[in-house]
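Allow me, if you will, to draw on your knowledge of protein folds for a short while. I have a record of one protein: its chain in single-letter code and its fold written as discrete structure tokens. Could you please explain, in whatever detail you think fit, how the structure tokens follow from the sequence? The record follows directly beneath this note:
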Amino acid sequence: MTSDHHGGNPRPARRRTARPRALVAAPPRPLWRQGLALIVLAALVLATTLITAAPASAVDPGGHEEELPQAASPTPSLPATGTTTLADGTPVAVIVSGGDGGILHIVSLSTGEVLATEDFAPKNTDVQPWGFATLSNRHVLLASGGGQLFEIDVDAPAGTRVTNLSDSSRPGYDQVKPLGTFYWDVVVDEQDRAYIASHSDGGQQGRVLRYDTRANNGQGQWSDLLGAPVQSGETGVRSLAYENGTLYAGTGTAKPSIYRIALGGESPQATRLSVPESVTQGSGGIDRLAVRGGYLYVGTAKGAGTGNTFPCKGTCVLDPSTGAPKQVNGQPLEVNTWSSRIITRPGQAEKVYYYVQSGGKPTIQEYDPRTNASTTVIADERLGDRLSPSGWATANHLVSAGMHAERVGIYQADSGSVTAVADGAIKASPRIFFALGSVPGNGIYASWYMTTPSLMRISPAAQASQTTYTITSAPTAQVEGFGATASWMVTGNYNTGTLVPYRLGSGEPQAGTGVSIGSGQARPHTIVPIDDGRFAVASEPASRGSAGGAIAVFDAERGTVDTYPLDKMPYAPGVEAGSLSGLRPTSLIHRNGKLYVGTTGGSGSHPALFEFDLASRTVTRVERHFQGHLAITALALGADGKIYGSTGMSVFEANPSTLAIVRSAEVRRGFKGDKHSQLIERNGVLYGIMAGRLYAISTSDLSQATIIAADTTSPETGRTVVHGLALGEDGSLYFSRGSTLYRYVLPAG
């Protein structure tokens, strides 16, 4: 995610399967309230075929799958960089271009020359370099957003420099593997024990994992540091800092907090610091921590819709023992970093460093907490705008790099000089695709997992091998979804929660001004046309584990948006007020002036299917049918005017007039989904992604289902799922597996 959260997400690369179950539908709400006898309820179930057996037959759409040419990569993704020294003492930067497989670059900090590059992970391994730490033997640890910990030996021969420590051969790994699907950060102590900030999509909640590099004669030892989540209700630990036997952990996003963990003893305990509410209120989590000389530096992720404002001008300075604000002359200490992180420098006991734009120039500042003052170290156009915790390789060499390698600059303190790494020297890794959208007259547009300053246009051809791609400029974001009409394309951008309009016509579509959905929304994932210039949008907060989603109506021509949070929805007379509170929209269609929206469940309740009238802007109907399911993951409007949907485990038909379930069938090898997906109807067949596979399902008999594009599995990378789905104007279905695009060619007609 991401993401960035940057992407966060936590990603589409791997999915877990669960045992299929039949869809169990509650009766229509009025009947349920009347408390009908069980025999009447059973008769209703039988009459409407709400429960069906597993699919007994298959539908054959008569098409075939084709792999498309390998797509070009966008700019490199460099969330963080590492540093160390070679055996001869040469300071080097360890730069990993994130994506499918990752590319390692070893860069001399004396000359700026790239000394070596290496593709180090198998295809379909999601490598996202979020955290680096240097061991006493000069090896570098990389915590990857793909949920791996790598060890990098810069002196090793080519092809052997990188070892994946997230492997069953490492003691304890199989036990901790389910506890972390995304690694945000890593720090090490004096005994080369590594502490990893992890995020979990599997209900395990955020943990601090420990890897002892010296244990078991160098084979290492994995463990869960606390043996429990750091904070109940939080899916991720976002940041770490370490000093003198004490670890600090920052969480997010439901109730961002900071925990102090004393590492001495057999059973470390976490103590929540009493951080002022002003530090965390409205934030997206504690995403930056640093500690030095009795000062704890805290930076928060910008909450969606909060604008360009940060507590304490960017970084708050707290007492690491209590969480209370540090003060000088009665004034709280604040560092004007904006979104930049504070980093420490070898040999400096108290001063710290950060990046800002000052006078229009990239600038490195030095901050002294004893005086609450910053001074300029160097201002130079060649500096990158991102510093990493281990950015100082030595007291003399600092590396700075842009998130997308716009600039990679090296500062040498003894000479006061800056050396730029040559443009193009940092290679882009292939990137995992995230969303696809069909745009009339413009082919298929695609976005990637993790933020990029670009989109990709796919121009189909009769022969798959003749398919061409064009990378176009776009606002930097992870695009969650596309919507399009003959005149407009709209993207939903994470993590800003903005909608960006592109006017279509002659030439390449150009981005207009983005409009924020507001109301804490970060993921506008489903965008459907209402008419040629207006779009309906379903969105979620940054953390998919949080409640508080919204629907919105966006006018692309006027650049206006009307947002309706589900927690504050207006209800028509006769509809139970508040019945959608705590839910998130996961699917959306438009039909005859009304929106039909599928949601997650919440607080033990069932997912909802509701109707929203665009004329009155009120909820006119709410039904709960889906006991035991997590969400209505996709909806489709058939050419027959019927509503079709999926829960990931089952498909169903709903009556548009009553929202009652007409019929349903379980999906072979499906599982409960809680994230939005895609469902398309064409010529009496539903095409949808469920459980990471592309299915074809007959609308006349929902029990007739066929997997037409399967997931893939390998011992090295595990499972790679089918993701993203768009119906091209050529009549083919376009989708991805990892960083590779495919199409399923349907028969003409």
Q: What stands out?
A: Helices lie at 29-33, 38-47, 173-176, 277-280. The longest helix spans residues 38-47.
